[in-house]
Design a protein that fits this description.
CATH topology of the largest domain in chain A: UDP N-Acetylglucosamine Acyltransferase, domain 1
CATH superfamily of the largest domain in chain A: Hexapeptide repeat proteins
Oligomer: homotrimer
Strand content of chain A: 25-35%
Strand order of the largest sheet of chain A: 10-13-16-19-24-27-30-33-36-38-39
Shape of chain A: flat
CATH architecture of the largest domain in chain A: 3 Solenoid
Number of strands of chain A: 39
Number of domains of chain A: 3
Distance between the termini of chain A: 71 Å
């Protein structure tokens, strides 16, 4: 059952202004501008999509400045994308679980403490000496090892594994398949050249308001803690090695990996498939372009790209130079042939 | 218990022709040409393996044209590799589960509907309002969130997570550890620079005859659906971001990732560890070489490679030019030293 | 409850020599030199951390040669890092499970055989005809398909999936989320251009003393076995395709992938995010630098880097040449403009 709202109700909710259209128009869904149906609301905020303004079938469009559009209704707000975000909440589909809040098949050790208003799905497991705060949800098949501590308002999706000693703040979301607290990858070579395992005695500490995507791996520290700071968001399939320390408000795209003991500052942004070597410092506000291979410290606010990663402008300059290289080689060969007959081949 | 067949039985099954060898020869297994034992059948189809024709211990070899070989028997078919495929079916080992078809430890919400002849493994979970078609198998520990719809003849391996609202066609295979329907990675920055989560209201729709490897992540759409078309095959550890639309008959190798809203046409092939930026169009029949970083649309039928990805011939040309660069620099230094004394260092 | 030891006890345990400090000093923990508290022991072995020797708050430092330090106690051993490893064992935190050794919610098929002194967590599943050796631990939610054979002293973390027919040696560790025995990625194109699945009849064989990180995927062979040799260690999120054969004592960092049928020798080391094409041979003792894309065989003992991977010295030489390219282009343009007015743009 989808909810429906009038344009006026949505406008009031967004603290917006109706630039055109009937305030009583009924909106039954939210959609992208190019996909919207005749009772949908959408938003326009990226000029790349300007072509759809005149063709959209949407009933209403949320904008931050006046536009010409085929939609009947135009709703002005301060930040169109944030308006879209809020409207998505209005129309969020109801996918509530049909199971009881504490499913009888979940296994919860009696020496663990769970807060008020929590939900624990079928076949979830909570080992001994855990603390789970209020309003948390632990999905089906998820496993909390011994001594896991979790704050309030956390959402742990199904089939997550939180290993022994993991500490999680408030309002944290962890998606399915993610493993927190696996052993770091540490070995010492003995005299016979065999690897001997370095015990991984530390843990993982995750701050408040963190979101971690699906099938990530976050290794426990050798000693001390691997840390992920408040408000940091990780996409899917990300590797965080032992003793990595990620600051606050970072934004790390899918399939990136950070090797051991590297320190990532605050407000750092990674594109996808980035690799960062161990024992480095990525300073506050740095931006690492997708697929970069970072082998040196990155200064605050600097954007790097390429492998090995360099300041982005330098990567672009070298890339442009390489693009011209075949032509340059032709020129050099011409000079050289003229002089010595040597072609450089 | 391995089955055994005579050469004649296999020849009949493959609609083949015995070029040499006793039709009553007993074949008890199938193997690679270099590993085959004296009662095995193998195939020869790749000239890289021609050296093994004279040394193989196989009893029989499947070929598409006459060959000289140490094997007693030669079996001619139209397509040797397809013959091999069929013979693999003949000798498929029996690894049937010993559990009852609907294991008593599985938790199935009574408001979900399951078809005929289905198998549900121990500790599997099916939440409310799901529909599972006929002849499906749901592996141990797999979780279907609320409102998952699945066609007939699907094979879901153990520890798969299909989140709320996921729609799956007929004859789909999903390997262990894969997560379908995790939230897309979408945030809006507020005035204080904090990330606010964009609700991910959409779902994932997977077509017919799709196979998805192990530990993949396929995010749900913001609105609408992330889509994977009929007959498309994904290898392991692949990331498909929100609102990506992959066409029919694509073939995506391991550890590739596709960023949000990118559209992949039909018959597209990716090598491993490819990364594709968001909001791009990869047109029908394009080929993306392994480890490419695709930052622009790719035209129909074009092969691209490198990072940033370029048409493959151009990548090769630039790579060859770079290989010659040290020599070219020497030449330029010679000219220059002769003229100005400047060495370019 | 952390244990505590005197310096003398630790020195005796390490077969070390107290260079300075009171033998009765009480040590209550082990830490990194930069993080150590006043009752901690740390080690010094990497000159990168020399600056901490004079500032550490540690009570004691383990060294392999005499040093000046702010720590009260200095303990001399032959190999400082190995001493650290041993001390980590002394102080390993106790995160024992609170559940009974064979949890009643685990589902174990009666036709499987489990050895002495084993631990099976809640909701683990062991299908028919498995053999699990003595002293093994199978974590919560882990699934063993039919016909899995495991030696003694194995540690299988929660939510691992070991599919039908997998064979595992002694003293193997497999971290959470890892999938062993998923189908390889093999298809044949039929006349209509559709992919037809090649049955994957083989299995995976893992040797002794192997460790496999979290969320890895190791595919079963088409025929025969995908193999991982004794003492080989895999980090997290690694892809091992069908029929890959990895030798002994290899060391493969996170997010690397090895395509089908490639043979990796003994003592091979991979950095992170490496990709290796199929049907190659990486010979003994080769080193593959992080993010390399390996497209050709690698000779014994050779270090390669880059994409496509080349001998590392060549990659460095070409990288240095490319760094100089913009300057070289300027020089060439100067010559050329002087001669022909053509700028090479």
């Amino acid at each position: 059952m989808t909810d429906s709202f009038t344009l006026k109700e949505i406008s009031d909710y967004l603290d917006g202004k109706i630039l055109s259209g009937n305030p009583d128009s009924v909106i039954t869904g939210v959609s992208a501008i190019q996909d919207a149906g005749p009772a949908d609301i959408c938003y326009y905020g990226n000029t790349k999509y300007a072509g759809y303004l005149g063709t959209t079938n949407a009933k209403a469009v949320i904008v931050a400045s006046s536009v010409e559009t085929s939609a009947d209704c135009v709703l002005l707000v301060e930040d169109a994308y944030d308006g879209f975000r809020k409207v998505l909440h209005l129309f969020k589909p109801d996918h509530s679980s049909g199971f009881s809040k504490l499913h009888s098949s979940a296994v919860i050790h009696p020496d663990s403490h769970t807060g008020r208003n929590i939900r624990i799905g079928p076949h979830a497991v909570i080992d001994t000496d855990c603390v789970v705060g209020d309003n948390c949800s632990i999905g089906s098949g998820s496993v909390l090892g011994p001594d896991v501590v979790m704050g309030n308002d956390c959402l742990i999706y199904p089939n997550v594994t939180l290993l022994a000693g993991t500490v999680i703040g408030n309002n944290v979301i962890i998606h399915s398949g993610t493993v927190v607290g696996s052993d770091g990858f540490g070995f010492v070579f003995d005299a016979e050249g065999q690897h001997k395992k370095i015990p991984q005695n530390g843990n993982v500490i995750i701050g408040n308001n963190v979101e971690i995507g699906a099938n990530c791996t976050i290794d426990r520290a050798v000693t001390g803690s691997t840390k992920i700071g408040d408000h940091t968001k990780l996409d899917n399939l990300i590797q965080v090695a032992h003793n990595v320390c990620i600051g606050k408000g970072c934004f790390i795209a899918a399939q990136s990996g950070i090797a051991g003991s590297t320190v990532v500052g605050n407000g750092v942004v990674f594109g996808g498939q980035v690799g960062v070597s161990g024992h480095l410092v990525i300073n506050d506000g740095a931006v690492i372009a997708a697929k970069s291979g970072v082998t040196k410290d990155v200064d605050s606010g600097v954007t790097v790209s390429g492998n090995p990663a360099r300041p982005h402008m330098e990567t672009l300059r070298l890339g442009a130079a390489v693009s011209r290289l075949p032509k340059i080689i032709e020129l050099v060969k011409e000079f050289n042939t003229g002089k010595t007959g040597e072609t450089g081949d």
